[in-house]
Specification:
4-stranded mixed β-sheet; about 15% strand
């Protein structure tokens, strides 16, 4: 159970997100020093949304926040948010995520999310259902129009409503009022409270170690070559043993000869073992449901139906005992690189009933591969990349482990710039970064600058870390240019936010950095004027398109290039 220390750690993390935002966007209003709660609340929005935003950076996430108070402080314009604080669209998965946030100033062990918090959002849901947007303005209206267009399309969109707070206890999702909300709006309702947030906040853990006892018939050693002194192992492990060695209780992790397994029914997963897992923190997925169904209906089939788990340990010590009938193994500083969803689901299933540990989990087995890394971080990254590449996982997550991405992270750190390769990464508490940029955003900027195709930066994201990857990050890539890419982005964002007469859009920034690269000596405000004029004038087959639709047209980019040649030269 998360307690006061978790609450305090969250406060610190939220303040760091707030500080990063102030270094990225010039706020229209200043928050007084005695209103620390307002700073934490703003940081809380960003922290939670980054876990769902699939590589969106702080600028993108701030555009997804429709909360009236947030927009009043940051942008100087706060419209009625109709009870929804943020709307995140995932176009690839066709998911719409709606968020209602509550951030409490003081900790209480007995505090719970209130049912009424969800019904504050009913105005937003009513607007979706009736499609009546009279009086709705700004970002709130934009988000509703996009939701309504998605639901009216032929594509199947999933809507999930998240009730999020820093309170200790969740909202009661089985409440009849919540059931009514599900029935009316055909949406899924999920609750995020302090316990869940505690796991999301996991920093790089202290080394996690465990001891295990196997029947010799359940273990197969593997050596990379004959002269190697480092052994890896492929083993059949009982699910109950997997629970034990990944629990938060270090005493249980060392009790390899445990006789009474009943204490395992109440143990918690140490999320530190998943720190290097490329999937990040997943609230739920269809795979979790399938694994749980196998455990419930056919536990003996888990070994055959499941791909298993891949671990890597800095040290593995194994010795034969009882006349080599048994193998005692000690794994030091280990991480689960693949199979994190399997591990989480087994722990969740364990919590559902005290009998599950003895009746089910002690009777089924999982395939576990335990590799020795001998402290070689590159080996760890390669194992994680290649074992996960066989599963349904984004190419960006896979590439986050590649050596060139780690090199960019290390290079930019020299200039106090945090290069976030994974969601939720805001650096260690010992370093005060002046700026943050995500790996995905950096790739989008390279597509605009290096490939010269800003029209593809927003709608070809899925190709940046696949078919465009070598061209952008490897072929003729000069790491010393990374700082210039980030600075162009910072300068472009700041320039747009300092012009109250223009509307900021993510796609405009890709065009602006592209224009700055082609005409580095040209005044940035002139470039913005040219871009805005081109957006206003552009039409497609005598039809008026939205600004976002205009900027993904190749003909728009070609027309802009012609205007640039004429207007920049004339200036």
């Amino acid at each position: 159970m998360a307690g006061l220390n978790t609450f305090k750690n969250l406060n610190v993390k939220c303040e760091r997100y707030y500080n990063l935002l102030t270094k990225t966007i010039p706020f229209k209003k200043t928050i007084s020093e005695d209103r620390i709660i307002d700073k934490r609340r703003i940081g809380f929005y960003l922290f939670i949304l980054e876990s769902f935003g699939r590589g969106k950076d702080i600028v993108d996430l701030s555009q997804c926040i429709i909360d009236s108070d947030f927009n009043d402080i940051v942008y100087g314009i706060g419209h009625d948010d109709l009870g929804i604080d943020a709307v995140l669209f995932d176009d690839e998965s066709q998911e719409i995520n709606l968020f209602n946030f509550k951030y409490r100033e003081r900790f209480s062990a007995n505090s719970s999310q209130g049912i009424n918090d969800s019904f504050i959002s009913s105005k937003y849901f009513n607007a979706i259902e009736t499609e009546n947007l009279i009086g709705v303005q700004g970002k709130v209206r934009d988000s509703l129009e996009k939701v309504i267009d998605a639901l009216n399309s032929n594509n199947i969109w999933k809507i999930t409503y998240y009730s999020v707070s820093n309170e200790t206890n969740k909202i009661r999702l089985k409440d009849p009022h919540i059931d009514r909300l599900r029935a009316i709006y055909d949406l899924e309702v999920k609750s995020i409270s302090l316990d869940y947030i505690a796991d999301m906040m996991s920093l790089r853990p202290e080394p996690i170690c465990a001891s295990i006892l196997f029947d010799s018939s359940s273990i197969m050693p593997y050596v990379e070559h004959e002269l190697s002194s480092s052994k890896s192992y492929i083993v059949r492990m009982k699910a109950s043993e997997l629970i034990r060695i990944t629990s938060k209780d270090s005493v249980l992790r060392d009790d390899y000869n445990i006789e009474d397994i009943s204490p395992l029914s109440s143990t918690e997963l140490d999320y530190g073992v998943l720190f290097d897992n490329v999937r990040g923190f997943v609230l739920n997925s269809k795979y979790n449901t399938n694994i749980k169904k196998t455990l419930s209906d056919s536990p003996s089939k888990l070994f055959m139906y499941n791909n298993g788990i891949t671990m890597v340990a800095k040290e593995i010590h194994s010795e034969g005992i009882n006349g080599n009938r048994k193998q005692k193994m000690r794994i030091n500083d280990f991480q689960v690189l693949n199979g994190g969803q399997t591990l989480r689901t087994i722990h969740d299933f364990n919590k559902e009933s005290e009998k599950n540990i003895s009746d089910v989990l002690s009777e089924c087995e999982v395939l576990v591969r335990i590799f020795s890394s001998s402290g070689d971080d590159n080996t760890i990254n390669k194992i994680a990349e290649f074992t996960n590449s066989q599963n349904s996982i984004s190419t960006a997550d896979l590439k986050s482990l590649s050596s060139e991405q780690i090199d960019i992270e290390n290079y930019l750190a020299n200039f106090d710039i945090l290069y976030s390769r994974k969601s939720g990464d805001i650096g260690g508490s010992d370093k005060n970064y002046s700026y943050q940029i995500t790996m995905e955003k950096f790739g989008q900027l390279l597509l605009a600058i290096k490939k010269g195709e800003p029209d593809k930066s927003s709608n070809h994201k899925q190709y940046i870390f696949s078919k465009y990857y070598d061209e952008l990050f490897i072929d003729n890539f000069d790491i010393s240019e990374s700082l210039d890419v980030v600075n162009k982005y910072r300068y472009s964002v700041s320039a747009y936010y300092n012009r109250p007469d223009t509307v900021f859009m993510e796609q405009k920034v890709y065009y602006l950095v592209y224009m700055m690269s082609k005409y580095p000596s040209c005044d940035i405000n002139l470039l913005i004027d040219i871009l805005e004029d081109e957006i206003t004038a552009f039409r497609e087959d005598d039809k008026s398109l939205s600004d976002a639709r205009k900027m993904i047209q190749v003909r728009f980019r070609e027309g802009l290039e012609s205007s640039l040649k004429l207007k920049v030269i004339s200036e």
